[in-house]
Amino acid sequence: MTVVEKKQPTDRLQENLSQVQRLIERHRLVEDLVHRQEMEKHDLVENLVHKQNLVELQHKLSQLHPADIAHILEALPLEDRLLVWDLVKTEQDGEILLEVSDAVRETLIESMEQHELVAAAEQLDTDELADLAADLPRQVVYEVMGSLDEQERAQLQSALSYDEDRVGALMDFELVKIRADVSCEVVLRYLRRFDELPSHTDKIFVTDEEGVLKGVLPVRKLLVADPDALVQDVMATEVVTFHPEEEAADAALAFERYDLVTAPVIDDKGLLIGRLTVDEMVDVIREESESEVLNLAGLKEEEDLFAPVIDSVKNRWAWLAINLCTAFVASRVIGAFEGSIQKIVALAALMPIVAGIGGNSGNQTITMIVRALAMGQLQPGQAARLWRKELGVSAMNGLVWGGMLGLLAWALYGNLALGLVMVAATTLNLMLAATMGVYIPLTMEKFGKDPAVGSSVMITACTDSGGFFIFLGLATLLLL
């Protein structure tokens, strides 16, 4: 009996990427040889390139899922990315464009002709087209809309009327709905008329004649119910619903909290207008997580790994400029105590430790606060209580770790007073970090700003300048 080794999804992704990269390298190598050949031999070698390497690469790509191809495209430099993109099957273009990051999607769309974009967009469902429409040229969107029927056009216009971070922009229009006054046997016969059910169909939506949502009938309950039982006797009436104007991030949290696969979207009158599916919510959660990581680092937007230098500079310069200003302030704080440092050289070696541990502690606090705000767990009225708690944590950490640093300073420099200054400075800087870690994101939230944007840069600036000032100030007062 042969045992087949199962590979983890990440391992398969890396293996596929490595194979594609090897094929591209072989293609580039032979292509380089082509240019070295005499003109009369050029056609022969060129045929060899296309028949052996490009065909093999195209065959490899044809075996991959669109999401795997998207991963490969994101991991390739622009020249290789466009080579692979030209070899992808045309019928996969639309799905791949949905899967790649915004930055990579922009490079792919720029390389495509208008008729290619139209063909790719026409392969998508209405809700998928709504996701992609914002990145497509306006003329392409108009041309695709002209090919839709009246119902699909109305659905697309409805989805496009909402901001991309709202439920209405993400809702799916493919769903199964029934009336409450029919039997389960009738519902089963109705379902058998479908070639296939819409993806992620775990429940059937029950509406009245006017389309008002009355409940849901889980498929697992339908399959075991008495065929003669009426839907209204079997259906669930306590249903998690969403409105199209709600934030998608809040809907994603609800999906996570209630373990939802699908959920209905209703308007103000209770009319069923669409549904949310778990795959869209997973994408929202992933994007929110990536955005939070980028914002904490002071990056304005997602960046193509192989973007042109000037694009990366534009994305990063703003917070680097702010960081430069804060670093200058920190240097002026040090400059104000030059006399103290000259008299006690050990201060120069020890002060980065105080600033560094404060920055780490502040980043821990600020990460926790930003997460709590994103999860809806923290209300403004709880700020003072949370601040007191964080002060307690920082004071205890300061005494413990500051004490260890103080003992180390005493042992190294034989100066007990210097050790006590280390204890006091470390504790006070950790308390400063706790205060800033709580109130920086809360203040940004109060003024309608994203609390994650540049928070780590700001907290580091506070703990650096504050740590230098506290440590050198105490040393000046107590040691000189």
From TrEMBL:
<dbReference type="InterPro" id="IPR038076">
    <property type="entry name" value="MgtE_N_sf"/>
</dbReference>
<dbReference type="InterPro" id="IPR006668">
    <property type="entry name" value="Mg_transptr_MgtE_intracell_dom"/>
</dbReference>
<keyword id="KW-0812">Transmembrane</keyword>
<keyword id="KW-0129">CBS domain</keyword>
<keyword id="KW-0479">Metal-binding</keyword>
<dbReference type="InterPro" id="IPR006669">
    <property type="entry name" value="MgtE_transporter"/>
</dbReference>
<dbReference type="Pfam" id="PF03448">
    <property type="entry name" value="MgtE_N"/>
</dbReference>
<comment type="similarity">
    <text>Belongs to the SLC41A transporter family.</text>
</comment>
<feature type="transmembrane region" description="Helical">
    <location>
        <begin position="391"/>
        <end position="413"/>
    </location>
</feature>
<dbReference type="InterPro" id="IPR000644">
    <property type="entry name" value="CBS_dom"/>
</dbReference>
<dbReference type="Pfam" id="PF01769">
    <property type="entry name" value="MgtE"/>
</dbReference>
<feature type="transmembrane region" description="Helical">
    <location>
        <begin position="452"/>
        <end position="479"/>
    </location>
</feature>
<keyword id="KW-0472">Membrane</keyword>
<keyword id="KW-1133">Transmembrane helix</keyword>
<protein>
    <recommendedName>
        <fullName>Magnesium transporter MgtE</fullName>
    </recommendedName>
</protein>
<keyword id="KW-0813">Transport</keyword>
<feature type="transmembrane region" description="Helical">
    <location>
        <begin position="419"/>
        <end position="440"/>
    </location>
</feature>
<dbReference type="InterPro" id="IPR006667">
    <property type="entry name" value="SLC41_membr_dom"/>
</dbReference>
<dbReference type="GO" id="GO:0046872">
    <property type="term" value="F:metal ion binding"/>
</dbReference>
<dbReference type="InterPro" id="IPR036739">
    <property type="entry name" value="SLC41_membr_dom_sf"/>
</dbReference>
<keyword id="KW-0460">Magnesium</keyword>
<keyword id="KW-1003">Cell membrane</keyword>
<dbReference type="GO" id="GO:0015095">
    <property type="term" value="F:magnesium ion transmembrane transporter activity"/>
</dbReference>
<comment type="subunit">
    <text>Homodimer.</text>
</comment>
<dbReference type="Pfam" id="PF00571">
    <property type="entry name" value="CBS"/>
</dbReference>
<comment type="function">
    <text>Acts as a magnesium transporter.</text>
</comment>
<dbReference type="InterPro" id="IPR046342">
    <property type="entry name" value="CBS_dom_sf"/>
</dbReference>
<dbReference type="GO" id="GO:0005886">
    <property type="term" value="C:plasma membrane"/>
</dbReference>
<feature type="domain" description="CBS">
    <location>
        <begin position="235"/>
        <end position="291"/>
    </location>
</feature>
